[in-house]
Amino acid sequence: MSAVGDLSRTLSSALTVESRIVAAGTAGGIDRAMSEAAAEGLLLTAYTAAEHFVREFFFELINGASLSSLFPSPLTGLDEDLNRSLVYLDTDKLEWMLPAGTVEPRADKLFPNGHPFLRLKWRDTFSGRLAAAKIVRDRIAHSGEKAETVYWAKVAERQQAYKRPGAWLISNSAEIATPTSNLRVLIDTLDGMAVALSDHSPDLDRLLGPSLAVADTTKAIPGTFKCSSCNAVAAAVVGSPIGRCRSTTCGPTRGKTTWVYFAE
Asked: Is 236 helix (H, G, I), strand (E, B) or coil?
């Protein structure tokens, strides 16, 4: 099974368990404590599976096993073990969960004509949820002062009710109107990340939230951009500044342009 298939199967099972965990948490007493612990364990499992997915999917891309027509790898046809050695470097500095400053630069080197990892940029909702998943994951895995301080400041906001990360995970998300646990939101985010990377034409706004507006001096990534003033669509050379809108509506004003990115 492919990397995305493996992750999809894991997350699908996680969502089934999530509903039982949250239901048990509403009972209170010992069931509440057990559901909090179970929620923490489930998030660790899902997060670890997502990290493994990103690493394996990266390998599939450079080995030509995934999306080869969209993102041709210059390493296709080389020895598979050699390709894998490029992915699994013996270093503790390479983080594989997105958004990561280590994944995109490496992908830039191997996919000069564009690659799917850049599709996830400039999406605040998605990035915020992934960041929360990492913070909660670190707090569960590490009891150190740094992990606890970041958890309080960025996620729990010093709410005593969420002293244990599991309590926050089984509570309802503050950003979604329909009662939905924070645990489900994070698992859905991990699944959306996988679909956005592996599907050649996903509905990214639905999966990841709307794109963040960027200035005309921003360097372009693969895809197209819509002028926030006149909705004119433009494509720019990857790696070069997007530039100002040159439509008949905006062009004559010679002013600065704000662009919104959407998928290729």
From this structure: coil
